[in-house]
Amino acid sequence: MSAIDDLATELSRLPGIGRKTALRLTYHLLRQPADQSRRLATALLTLGERVRPCARCFNLTEDELCAVCRDPRRDPGTICVVEQASDIGAIERAGEFRGTYHVLGGHLSPLDGVGPDDLTVGALVDRLTEPGQPVREVIIATNPSLEGEATALYVQGQIGAIGVTVSRIARGLPVGGDLEYADGVTIAQALAARRTM
Ligand SMILES: [Zn+2]
């Protein structure tokens, strides 16, 4: 396999990039100064080396704790539970939520072999049962898909007896859609209209 094919194959694994676009990007890079490709390669390597999950909420960070967990202005009394770290960006862009987060690392999906132990629900239970923990409410903001709903029910089952309010963001997000791609107004409304589970 040639170097051109190699890179095009790797690029075509990225979401939204088909084989044709991958080849176009590859030829584009070939026409650039070698310096530029080297910077891109370095940035990709650095990403993998530096970025890791937050020790508390599993958001992505280059430090022990993520920017949200380190921010003293955030309300530690509310935790918004999301599937992926990228969902946090969508909620932050909506600009309404001032609490903290917990990233599950996906959703339950028996067909794909993703079970409860593959998610960070245990760590969430630990956060909620620490002595003196400040949490009053957990808002479950998993995606409005079948798997997202099943995951929300599972999380509720695990934390329902702890004594904090558990709520679910309102529908209004397109069913089967992805929180990550919803617009800010829709996310803000879904958060505001959340229901206790
Ligand atoms: Zn964090």
Give a description of the structure.
With 197 residues, the protein is of the alpha/beta class. It is 44% helix and 12% strand. Strands 4-3-5-6-7 form a five-stranded mixed β-sheet. Strands 1-2 form a two-stranded antiparallel sheet. The termini are far apart. Zinc ion binds next to helix 4.
N-to-C series of helices and strands: HHHEEHEHEHEHEHE
Derived from helix and strand composition plus strand pairing, the structural class reads alpha/beta
Radius of gyration: 20 Å
What's the average pLDDT? 92
Kindly report the spatial arrangement of strands forming the biggest sheet: 4-3-5-6-7
The first-to-last residue Cα distance is 54 Å
**CA-based shape:** elongated
Ranges with pLDDT <50 over ≥5 residues?
none
Beta content: 5-15%
Continuous helix count: 8
**Total beta strands:** 7
Main sheet: strands, sense, barrel:
5 strands, mixed
Name its key features:
alpha/beta, 5-stranded mixed sheet, elongated, 7 strands, binds zinc ion, two-stranded antiparallel ribbon
At a glance:
By secondary structure, this protein is α/β, with parallel strands linked by helices. Helices cover 44% and strands 12% of the residues.
